[in-house]
Amino acid sequence: MGASIQRKMAEGPVQLEDGSLIHRDKGTPQGGVISPLLANLFLHYAFDTWMQRQYPQIPFERYADDGICYCRSKAEAEGLRVAIERRFAECGLEISLQKTKIVYCKDDDRRGEYPEQKYDFLGYTFRPRRSKTRQGRFFVGFTPAISNKATKSICEAMRRWKLHRRSDKSPDELAQMINPVLRGWINYYGHFYKSALYRTFQHLNNTLARWASQKYKRLRGHKRRAFLWIQCIAHRQPGLFDHWQLSQVKAGQ
């Protein structure tokens, strides 16, 4: 891709929903389809290859314009941060001071106290968590689980389904509608610390109980009875909705 084409993409105007245009002279539009592509192309050379050449001993991960570097000490992390800021300035880039921070990965082997002990990356929150070995021993590990932001996004998506208004649908038809999406969420966010998803999908169980109370006359006005009906369905057909395979349906909140 020629430099002139990249410049036109980066400096082209942004059209808002009302049709108005915002003219820019730098950066790429937030949320723009082309933004991650340009970030990957540019940062591959401005950051990835530079890190591999200058700091081969420091592992790192990057996705678009978000990245994590794993340092062995606070001094190494502080030095790397200064070096990255200098490198980005040379490439005409700026580091987000609000998002960039040094985090202490606290666990059973690292028991110090530092202000920052968690970070978010790719929809996960990494922080100290109580875990259990296969032998039944408890320990504290620095592990990932679905982030609060991702949980909020999933709940908002489920609310947009308006399932409680789909009284024209049977349980099987509802399952066919939403299972592909549920499966995607579970496969991605359930890869680590799957139990963190229980509370997220409790909202969906409550919605299904609300749907049942709208569909069946005998359940109308009986919130508790509607939820017990959903529990019975989950017991008889645990594979009907994909999220039921994570845990038992518990009493609604």
Your description of this structure?
With 253 residues, this protein is an alpha+beta fold. Helices cover 44% and strands 13% of the residues. The chain contains 7 helices and 7 strands; from the N terminus they run H-E-E-H-E-E-H-E-E-E-H-H-H-H. The chain has helices at residues 3-11, 34-54, 74-90, 148-161, 171-189, 198-215, 223-236, and strands spanning 14-15, 21-22, 60-63, 66-69, 119-121, 124-132, 138-146. A 3-stranded antiparallel beta sheet has the order 5-6-7. The protein has a two-stranded antiparallel ribbon with strand order 1-2. A hairpin with a 2-residue loop joins strand 5 (119-121) and strand 6 (124-132). The protein is globular, with a radius of gyration of 24 Å. The termini are far apart.
Q: In percent, how helical is the residue content? A: 40-55%
Radius of gyration, in Å, reads 24 Å
**Unreliable runs:** 1-9
Number of helices: 7
Integer average pLDDT: 86
The class by helix and strand makeup works out as: alpha+beta
Sheet with most strands: strand arrangement: 5-6-7
Question: Per DSSP, what share of the residues sits in E-state strands of 2 or more residues?
Answer: 5-15%
Any idea what the shape is? globular
Order of helices and strands: HEEHEEHEEEHHHH
Would you report the number of β strands? 7
Q: What is the terminal separation in angstroms?
A: 54 Å
Strand count, sense and barrel status of the largest sheet are: 3 strands, antiparallel
